[in-house]
Amino acid sequence: MACDVELGPLAKTFALTGGHIKEVILRAASRAFATGRPITQQDLLLSANAEYRKLGLLSPHLEVHE
Asked: Which letter does DSSP use for residue 4 in this model?
């Protein structure tokens, strides 16, 4: 993982179960692998937002830019 990753704030922002967290991590890892770099905070935020959309929920984190 990149040095910018802070898991604490992510855990406080996104209310997800273990299975959904796993999906977020896998999606973030896939994004990072596709570009040959470590997982970043942005990868995790985008992935968590995507998981919320998949669940039909509005994301609590609005400052995400792809």
From this structure: T
